[in-house]
Amino acid sequence: MFLGTNFLESDEIKLILEKTTEADPVKNWVPAYHFLICDRQGTVMGRCALRIGYNDSLYYVGHIGYSVYEKYRGHHYAAKACELLFLLAKKHNMSYLYITCNPDNIPSRKTLEYLKGELLEIAELPEDSDMRVNYGDTEKCIFKFDL
User: Fold this and answer.
1) What is the pLDDT of residues 13-36, one digit of tens each?
2) Which structural domain range is residue 119 located in?
3) pLDDT tens digit string along 58-73?
4) Of the candidates 71, 75, 8, which has an alpha carbon nearest to the alpha carbon of residue 36?
5) Does any domain span residue 1?
6) Taking each helix axis from N to C terminus, what angle separates 77-91 and 106-114, rounded to the nearest 10 degrees?
7) pTM of the model
8) Are 62 and 24 a contacting pair, CB within 8 Å?
9) Where are the alpha helices (DSSP H) in the chain?
């Protein structure tokens, strides 16, 4: 199910596989890759993940999650990581991805706009959503990326 990931690098960054997680049907989770976002010298600048497949919860959770450490922000590293993850998603024959963020997370919204995502809606999270129950999130910006 999981593919090689050594090709996930650009002239500025590389994604180093940290772990993979198998699907968990009970939790409605799909298989996922988890990466460190590193510069070419191997300095860890953040993390990202790609969820493989499609289910209803991914509309709200998104296929890609990312976090760039504060001292490395402002260089489009999250966008560059997403572009590499798009390549891996294509290798899994995925035709589109959702990436979501909180409406008040302006840097993340700018990243998704920079990547030319289509803002489908600002959706209210279902009452039983893990993000609502565990983190108090009530809404998500839903961006779609056609691959």
Assistant:
1) 999 999 999 999 998 899 999 999
2) 13-146
3) 999 999 999 999 999 9
4) 8
5) no
6) 50
7) 0.96
8) no
9) 58-61, 77-91, 106-114, 130-135
